[in-house]
Amino acid sequence: MYAIQQAFSIITALCLLSGCQAVQQSAVNLFEALGGEPFDGVHLANRYSKLPHPAALSTFAPAGTPDGAYAITHSQTGLTLKSRVQAGRFVDAVDVYYPNGRLQSHTPIANGQVHGWSQGYAPDGSLRSRIYYERGQATRWEQYDAHGNKTAHGDFAP
Known about the structure:
Elements: H1 2-17, H2 24-33, H3 42-46, E1 50-51, E2 68-73, E3 80-86, E4 89-97, E5 103-110, E6 113-114, E7 116-121, E8 127-134, E9 137-144, E10 150-156
Parallel strand pairs: 1-10
Antiparallel strand pairs: 2-3, 3-4, 4-5, 5-6, 5-7, 7-8, 8-9, 9-10
Helix pairs in contact: 1-2
């Protein structure tokens, strides 16, 4: 049960940071409950030039997860997290899929940290957001409309 709860926390965090609207409020509640500073997406809509950093993403797999392919589906949201585990950590990338099988988010991992562009997609497959991570720290973001046009962008406050 703990492993499922931990995986749901990871799915929720990845969805929030990659543009998933369906679980946005639950992720904000999770971050606040853990004492983190929430990143609720409203900041993007308001187009602040400098945003507070979102809560850090963990690359640790649930305790006891064996090396190899990893997948878990959340029973309430239907979201499926897929990755590969090595020595207790997710490696290469973490991908989250909608119940319809389309990619919801892709978050790259390098050297044990989130690194590179994390992309968030709408259920129809259109790109909705990107967040750039440099060695585990979110540094900048981009928001897109349903037609793929960049509508907002900015930097996270240091």
